[in-house]
Structures are given as C-alpha cells and as structure tokens.
C-alpha cells in the first residue's frame, strides 16, 4: 500500500467509525438485542469481513434491514443465546452459497435499479436524519423503512420534529452543516494542515464542545437527555468488558426452528450484501469489479464468528459504504480502520463518545445522503431514455415508501418489463414490396419474442411470398422454430410461399425443409 493510500484510508476509516457507532447501537436497540451485540457485529464486519471481502470499499456491519427479522427471531426462539446459534448457522449457509458460486446472481440486477437504490437511500438518509437534526430521536439510528416502530412514518416523523424543535440540537446541527459545507470550499482545501483534518471529525468535536459550552453558559439550553446523545455501553473494568461477549447455546443446533431462522437470515443477508456490493462498485472511483462469490464467503465467515461471540448478523451496508467512498477511501484498510476504532472506543473512551450529540452525526449523514441523491444523477438517467429512467425512478419511489428489498424487487419487475419490451420489438424487422415480404431476425430469438413473431406472421396476406432471414441471429430457440413450422403448415392453405435463409441448423433449432413453391 502506498503512503497516500494509507493516509486516505485512515482518514476515511475515522469518518466511517463516527457514522457506524450510533448505527450499530441503534440497530441493536431496534432488534431487541444487547447494545454490545451491535458493536460486536460492527467490529467483526469492519475487521474480518473487510480483510476477506470481494470489494475494496464496501463496509460491513449490522443492517437495519434485518432488525425486524432479528427481533422476531429472538422472541420466537426464546433466548438470545439460541438466536446466536442461528446466526452462526447462517454464516455456514452463506459460505456454502459462495462455494456454489451463487453470488453471480447479483449480476442480473439492472444498472438502472442499482442507481435507483443508491439515490433512494440518499433520499431516505436525508429524510430520516432531519428529525435527529431537530432533536427528535424516537426512531432508531439506521432505520430505512418508511413505516416506523413508534406508529409514525418517515414524513409524519419530520412533521412531529418540526412541531417539537429542540433548540440546542437545531443549533448544533446547523453549525455542523455549516462546518461541513465550509470544509468543501477551495479556500480550506488549499491550506495543507486544514485539509488534513476530516470535516466529520471536526463536526463531532465541535458538537461535543458546543454542548458543553451551552451547559456552562446558558443553563438549561443544552442537550442533557441521553436519548439525544450516543449511548455506548460503559464497562467498569476489562473483566466486565469480557462478560459482554456471549456464546451460542450449542444444544440449540438440534432445533428445527433454529435452522429455519438461519436460512432466513442467510438469504436476506446475502441479498442485501450482494446489492450493496453492486452499489459499492458503482460508487468506487476506481471502478473496480468485485467478486460476489468471494463476498458471500466473507459474509459467511463474518456471521459465523459474530454468532459465536455474541454479535448480530453482518451484511454489507450501503450507508457506511457511501460514507467510506465519499470520505476518500482507496482500499479495504479504511473499513479495517473503522472496525479497530470501534474496538478501541468501546475499551478506552466510551465516556467521551457518549457526550456526542446525535444532531451532529445527523448533519454528517445528511451531507452523505445529498451526495447519493444529487440532482445530476436524475438528469443523467432522464437523458438516457424512458427504458432507463422509469425503472430508476420507480425503484427510488418504492424504496422511499417501503424498504430496501421490497423497493429493489419492484424496480426489478419494472426493469424486466422494459427488457422484455425491448427484446420483443427490436430483434425483428419486416419489410415488403409488391407482395414480397422479408422478415429479418436482427439478433438472437428466444421464447420472449414468440408473441411478436406470431403477430408478424399473422399479418402476412394470402398469395404472398415470405423470406425469413436468420443470418444475424446466432441462436434461435425451439419455440420460435415451432411457430415458423406451424405457420409453414398453415401457409399451404393461404397460397403463401415461404423461403428460409440461414434459419435451419441453428443451435437449439430443428431442421425443416423449405416448403415447395406453389
């Protein structure tokens, strides 16, 4: 690793650490698990998975998309230790999926859907962080779902936050946003020693400092409620710290419902990881192509270890990956740095970090979200045509109004419609002159073109001549061949002469003798 890469990765790792800390805690809280379990998942994802990952910029840790599954599983299984057995088994299943090379399924997600996912997550981040910036912290950090556990939704939560403004939180968030915007100015970037200080680190220090100044000089005008601050578990001694690690209930490995839970976690975690991996490749400034099968193996090892020591399930996560890329990460060592910083923070400085206002962290995430959902992306997708823009915008709306996996699923359905529509029309050309018709296959013909071929053949009038030219098609499947064969039989009753050119003896096509001319 060259020196400038190491410097960039250390700085980016620090930024990701600041973003990841409250997310790990918030997701654990929402999952009904011990807070320390979220930190274990963050540490394992940031160290073990980072080293083994198929991506240089992807960041792994506990995922909000699994929070409901985790909370339900812990309740149904009856004990957290039994749930840990399911997490470890899920890791083994993911390792199996990687060895079977099933990660390549992610390559079939259209680019428009991946770009829509990134833009949607950017919008969701901004919308979700507005209440935190205004001092309303009823929804847990990291929640990406439109419907919230407190009975609110993303939009009504913003309305409630506006109606119940917290003055100190608003002041800290406003100053934090100003610092981040100022840090992007050319005047700041030209000063070497200022450029060396990450803007998000300055925001966290400023947030802590401002709140302490408010407390000292303005009495009650400061953030004192722990609900509005980072809440890192504080261990009185190293021995107490070690007691927070838990082993799975090994007797639970014989229970059927543990295997069902493990399969659910493995499938959902793998889907989220593969989608995040595709997003990471899109965000990567160096446009490196990651191995999805290696990523599944890495996630599997991560979940096996996390389950064995008391952690939540691990996946690759877009929010932390986005923060990593925009902070200037160049290699996997940025993610490793963030994992090690989580470990050091838990051991050495939990009290200091617990003074950090969530409003300051909200400002950091708002800027990250805005970059993901920049206006230029929407303009470029619109310029690419409706076949790209509609799947993109449908994915955006679906994710914002539901959640990640549901939104991507809806986007893929719309994307598939346009793929079928394009293939339905584009590969076939029909021209005619004076009763002579030429049907040309411009590219491979498969079953999805069958309806179009039938429509064209049905339009050929009686007493005509038809040439079917398959020169440009490398493959014509059996469905198309059968349609032509059936029309060939019917043409005898319509006085239609049919001649084929480079149509027979194609791969997947039976050989038919041309009909005799009438």
Specify the structural class: mainly alpha
Mean pLDDT: 90
- Fraction of residues in H or I helices: 55-70%
Strand order of the largest sheet: 3-4-5-6
Characterize the main sheet: 4 strands, mixed
Work out the radius of gyration: 28 Å
Task: Give the ordered list of helices and strands.
Answer: HHEHHHHHHHHHHHEHHHHHHHEEHEHE
Low-confidence stretches: 507-518
User: Ends: how far apart?
Assistant: 76 Å
User: What fraction of residues sit in β-strands?
Assistant: 5-15%
Helices, by number, come to 22
The geometry reads as: elongated
What's the domain count?
2
- Count every beta strand, where a strand is a DSSP E run of 2 or more residues: 6
Task: Describe this entry's structure for a reader.
The chain has 518 residues and is mainly alpha-helical. It folds into two domains: 3-380, no CATH class; 426-501, STAS domain (Transcription Regulator spoIIAA). It has 22 helices and six strands. It has helices spanning 3-30, 35-52, 67-77, 80-99, 111-133, 154-163, 167-182, 186-189, 192-195, 199-217, 238-242, 256-283, 292-309, 318-326, 333-348, 350-353, 358-372, 375-383, 386-401, 404-425, 450-458, 478-491, and strands at 60-61, 315-316, 428-433, 436-441, 465-469, 497-501. The strands form two sheets. Strands 3-4-5-6 form a four-stranded mixed β-sheet, covered by helices on one side. It has a two-stranded antiparallel sheet with strand order 1-2. A hairpin with a 2-residue loop joins strand 3 and strand 4. Helix 5 runs parallel beside helix 6 (154-163) and helix 21 (450-458) packs parallel to helix 22. It is elongated. The termini are far apart. The model is unreliable at 507-518 (pLDDT under 50).
